[in-house]
Queue: 2 jobs
Job 1
Amino acid sequence: METIENKILEKIKSTFRVDGVVQRERRIWITIESERLVKICQWLKSEGFVHLSAISVTDWPEEDCYEITYHLWSYNEKILLTVKTKIDRDNPLIDSVVPIWSNNAQIHERELHELFGVKFHGNPDLSQLFLEDWEGPPPFRKDFDWREYLQKEVFDPKNLREQGYYDKTK
Amino acid sequence: MAVKRMVKRSKKATVMRKLIKSIWVFNWFNSCGFAELVPVVGSRWDMERFGMIITGTPRHADVLFIAGYQTLKSVKRAQLIYQQMAEPRVVLALGACTMTGGVYWDSYNTIKRLEDYLPVTMYIPGCPPRPEAVFEACDKIFTHVKELQ
Amino acid sequence: MIKQNNTIENLFTSTPDIDGYDFYFGPTHPGSGNFGVKLKLHGERIESAKADPGYLHRGFEKLMEYRIPIQNSMLSDRLCVLEPLGWNLVHAEAVDELMGNDVPERAKYIRVIMAELSRIQSHIIWYGVFSIATGFDTGFKIAFGYRDYVLDLFEMITGGRVYPAGYICPGGVRRDLPEGTEEKILKVLDKINEMIDFEEKGNPVLEARTKGIGILKLEDAIRLGATGPVLRASGMRSDVRIEEPYEVYDRFDFDIPVRLEGDAYARYYLGIDEMIESIKIIKQALKQLPGGDYITPSLKKIKLAKKLPEGEVYVRNEVARGEAAIYMVSNGTEKPYRTKVRGPDFLHMIPVLEFLLKGAHIADIPAIYWSLNVCPADMDR
């Protein structure tokens, strides 16, 4: 029996060459390369995926890449489609989707630039959002351990209560 | 005939007894304090019957309530507010996050010990503390002022 | 790593011109909460607005990577202090779907009752704060007086007035409803009905201050990413509870109120309509409440941490402010590898607010700002 999710996935696969899977009712996940992102997203928006729910970045240090995911929702078909791409970890650079979903995408990308260090080419404003005068590395990367940073800078080993933080590190 | 004063008090004690009769409060609440300090103003635990009101500016206030965790960005503003208050002034810190860091003890952006940044007079424990605890703290201020020598 | 920068001049980032001036509607203003907006004015009209967030940033998403799911469910009620049980439910659903848990029927009904009570409590706060910001002080006192009935109910069921200590946990709920809860809930709902009768009478000052102010058209609302009551007041009938029913919402008979004008008055009265629908849902749920377990038997003793299977999920819910979502990735260990939290206020407070404040008067700022039902903790995380 052809469900709506399978029909939409077949339509995407026949227009562009992508791998995709239907996870359950109302969830489709597809994987593409980062160069074709803007073209595919423009086609998806004209097909009814007008609402950008979130943009997120996952850090995989063993595979030496960042994985960016775009979660799109369609009000007509009531289906959530997720687009996943991978970019390089040491020099993260990708095209911005601000021309497609205007200020909604701009504020998500500004937050990810501050927390992960990803540069979005074409975003009009990538200034600091949450932090003020922060000069360290991007805080959400996997190699910036918060508990070690606090042991060095903030906690005091001579304080009786805070000595306990130094014994058990996880 | 002139009436002689029977009890000898220091100058600070006389001044404090005249000024701290009804406390005017400036609220600098972060989110967690909002949920339990606003009922203190509301109609169930009414604080106006004790003479406490909320002022709009720190220049009129006697007491600064710091309710909840502070981040590096907001503690600078709290210091600016404290500098604008007139003597005698008291700082009350509410919640577990001001004492030890609380639930966010391993966050890179919150303050773990508030006493490094502001001179705190009294801590009120709880997460968040009940409104009755706030009244007990104000009662302790009054008792302390009465017993000053 | 952090510079010391304590001067007041650094709070403004541009030099003012001769005819206009800068105005900082800042975090210590009693009408703004912990959030600042930098405005450029020309006389009494606003030319541009720039939001200044970040006073409450704790880094939630990485804090959740250091803890196991049962500890995370205690942390998840602090995501938005004005509605803790709603966010508890989103997190519990995400972990349930990753682990493949089978939640019993009684637990689902209890979860729906707690989430709807929390939505009523959040709308009462919205009503109270909106009234005092536009000059109607009686509304503030009445709202916070009636809210305490709901908080006493939470204390009886979960143990905490404001934070329920992770009551809705992965697998079900932590403990069963005590004796006599159902009668108490019905009495509290009668009291809330009294308050709604008072609210519906209206107030001429409130109407004059909010009718025709801050109009948001439908295509702008969709383009800027608004969800929840802000989108429904502009004419679109969309709600996650009917588009994608989660828990047992498909068994109830309720309506979704929609208004067409899109101004502050429409958003404000939509909150009152939604409270009436929530009361209907709770009454139907109490009638249909079945017996049985309140948590899956395999998770009853939560002493050992279980390994989460590999995979990723995206769960959407409807909290009082709009659409809330969690994206969770797991790589086979006991702790989640990455949790992304999407809150409705991140979009409402920065793009939508900057768009609505352009061209408005200074005196309309509280009406526009509080009609969007903001929660700064949800935005900063």
Note: Chain C has two domains: 9-52, 60-380.
Job 2
Amino acid sequence: MTGASTSRTPFVQSVLDAAGAHPLPGSGVAWLDTARRENLEAFVASGLPDQRQEAWKYTALRALAQRSFGAVDPASALAAQVDRDALALPGVDGTRMVFVDGVFRDDLSSLNDLADGLSLRPLSRALTESAEPLRFALARHYQDAADGFARLNAALAGDGVVLAVAAGVRIAAPLHIVYVGVASDVAWHARVLVELGEGATLDLVEHHVAIGHAIQLGTLVADYDVRDGADLRLTLLQDASAQATLVRRNHLRLGAGAHAAVHALELGGALVRHELRAELAGDGASFDSHGVFTLRDRQHVDTQLDVRHLARDTRSNALWRGVADGRSRGVFRGAILVAEGADGSDANLSNKNLLLSAQAEIDTKPELEIYADEVKAAHGATIGQLDERSLFYLRSRGIPLAQARSLLTLAFCRAALQSLDNEPLREHLGALLMAHLPTDDLDA
Amino acid sequence: MLKIENLHARVEGKEILKGLSLDVKAGEVHAIMGPNGAGKSTLANVLSGREGYEVTAGTVTYRGKDLLALEPEERAAEGVFLAFQYPVEIPGVNNTYFLRAALNAQRKYRGEEELDSMRFLKLVREKLKVMQISDDLLHRAVNEGFSGGEKKRNEIFQMAVLEPKLAILDETDSGLDIDALKQVAEGVNALRSPDRAFVIVTHYQRLLDYIEPDYVHVLAGGRIVESGDKSLALKLEEQGYAWLADHHPELARAELAGAKA
């Protein structure tokens, strides 16, 4: 570690420069200033995670370390032209909260007529109104050098989402949280805090989208506290700029009898990391996760799924798919831990991948650790090509080779979205997939 | 319609077809029988263009064209249909969607107007009269979770919708109980027409009780060694493939005993 300060990478130097560029919301709150400063110091000391850390084994950040990103100018983010229609999602047309380069945009958001029992505010506003309730979440320190981006986020995040659903309240209409990337050579950081009271339900869409070809870095750290008997439906649609670097961490904690279902679709980005962790902390909690990435060109997408069964009779099911074309690289780590005492747990993980090009690469790593009794656990991971027999069957009926490939690839990906209840949204995600897949047009 | 001359084909370096000739005219039904390993399925696969089958000599002319020069999808659009011995399950691809994509791809190839979903569904309803399959199967993924009989009925249903000029049935009777066999045969009979030809590849005579062939050929050792009318099939049924040895001493006994090649 010694000497780190004398050999700062351009990335670390740019973080230091950005830290003082504009006052962050909440500046002047003593505990927050301290937490931000300490996290910044910790980040500067450790730098970006490197591949010697197991969690970053397949994702090299050497090139990122040589780049620099300035702070987002709040005035520019507030003035940036964004067409509301570009943010719209079928089946998701109620409450919306929009961030442009990490800065809350009231004018693009729809936050009127919030349902009773739903509290939804941008973090920037929550910090100026009353920061104290957020102290526990925001004054955190991260011990592990692999948490470099979490430190960075804790040091520099000035905006994000603070959301709470009161106990027993059911929010049926999906909430739409949109992160729009516009400016280049900047880094933004969003912090999200979501709490579902006992028996509450919530349907939330985290949506990353780009206007133009923004070359930027975004980090997002989200905590979801899903109390006993609550039910969270979370859809993650990542359609960022093809030049973007995006590092997200979604941590869910589920109480007794609580349930969460996640559907993740990764389309855009140059370098993307998604850490999805679910802690099944209460007896009978259950977690379903489904996701797919489709990569082309030189895209690199790293999904880290981490499911922790910490209580009795907990259940998890994971179905993830990956497709890589061009010279892209996909990484999937699916870790399942069944802790001591989490007896009667049931864990299932399936990860299947498709390589469409000889230059593409996918690394999949299922990990299973079991310390409890009477546990059912199954996991499987495969990497392969399109099935020749299926291709021939389609062609023998008159479907040209390129179209047959598209059809099979799309079907392969769609399996991960099948269980999404919101039909208009599911259809839309299917259409986005179809448009993104590195194959010929399909005649729908 | 189809003229095969002196066809030689290899699979994984092993010669399976050794000078096969066959002439099929529009409206005719030809049955190709023979012991296991004689090359029956190889013939069906070579005609439909499956990869891994290397033609080393001979020609196949279909309606004046060199069939072997065409891609599988081109053969289909030109009117060649293969009913698979083992229809493939394709999870995630809806049966109806698949069939419409296939029909429209063929129509596009032929310069015909593609069907919108309304007109396609009308066609499907019409064809369900030829080969009944349940609504549930129509809307499921292609062949996924279908029983053996349902898969074969789905093949015939696809044939009814795609209306090929030359239909090749590869052991369509295998694995079917007698009721399913009758249903499949009825579907095929409903599709018989003066401008459509059938090549029915089968190991057993029983399918031919329900689909009456105009010609029966015996394929053994990679060639057609006997041709005749349907009485030839009955003779085979009675006496087994072994009697061929008396007529064709050049054939090894092992090839006739039904030993898997």
Note: Chain B touches chain A through 33 residues (CB under 8 Å).
